[in-house]
Amino acid sequence: MKAVRVTGLVPGGAEAESSAKRLELCEVVRPERRTPSDVLVRVLCVGLDGTDREIVTERYGVPPAGETALTIGHESLGVVIEAAADSFLKPGDAVCALVRRPCSDPDCTACRNGQQDFCESGRYVERGIKGANGYLSEYYVEDAKYLVKVPLPALPYGVLAEPQSIVEKVWDEVQRIQQRLVWQPKTAVVLGSGPLGLLAAFTCRCLGLETIVWSKSSDDSAGAALVRDCGAVYKQAGVDSGSDAAPLSGYLRQAGKRADLIFECTGYSPLAFEAMTALGPNGVLALLGVTPGSRSIEIPADQVNQGLVLENKCVLGSVNASRKDFETGLFRLQQMEAKFPGLLGRLVTDRLRLEAVPGLDFSRIGIKAAVDLVPPEQWAELISGTGSDAVYSFSV
Ligand SMILES: [Zn+2]
Questions:
Q1: What are the phi and psi torsion angles at 47 (to 5°)?
Q2: Of 179, 199, 212, 262, which has the highest C-beta tally within 10 A?
């Protein structure tokens, strides 16, 4: 079968020189089920994101033990081909797959309790990222417990379940934290208008929050249009702020807005620190952006600390997601499609076939790219769903 792999990696996970790395379309052995709980899945579509770009272009990405190549792709949509008769999955079911697998450290309480998204040892494995092959291949085999059934109505945008699960995990955390008081959030601020920022903005709108998206992308970008079309406000960063050292705080003050909730989705660390000051009283700042660099900046530490203490503010980091976050994410995506028809479709700006991936220029992707291993118009004939609108809602 065909797979898109990053080759030229160093076994054992040492950082490879990026010059030795290549993204290639390879012929690999089709995997087979080995245990009763294994499920064979045919891949329909794989979404690409910033992590894939970093694996391809930067010092990132760890191959499986003893190997020098890694199949990329961690945002998947597929159809079950083979599963055990007593499995909750049957051939013809549409599924997406979780990314992280637990570490084997006996002292990692999180992994020992099935909460590998909170792994303490750092020795977890992530398919398509760290120590295990991803899903950008014609087939994969995975244990049923890491597969989530995709309801038929969610099929066209089911490939977005993984990025949406990131938003759902943090929203769930925010709600738990805010049980510390009577909290009636009105305004959410999303930093960044990439795929994650846009999904966070759509989510905030589904939650009925007044939403402001602050991003450096131009006011006439496709992302800005999506922001406005979900009823949020788009504010281009870097214009009319002059020499303001804290442009986000200045903008919010001038607009008379109090940020009850901030989702930081850029990974630009100076903005993460500025957001601590911009955050309103009793608010939560959720940091979701990964920062691969090593930047140092000067920060007004007294002012930041004073604000966090005197206004009961909370800052939390969040990564990866659990099974229930995928399930809630699939529910939310259906909610978004009902509320803002067509927006999720417009989020995927670039669709390509598997053969075109090695030649892909990641810097030219509009908002989000998706790789169709099976043309979308053929998906329905591979799915044997009854059309039952299975919905999951844990914390919506
Ligand atoms: Zn662990």
A1: -85, 145
A2: 262
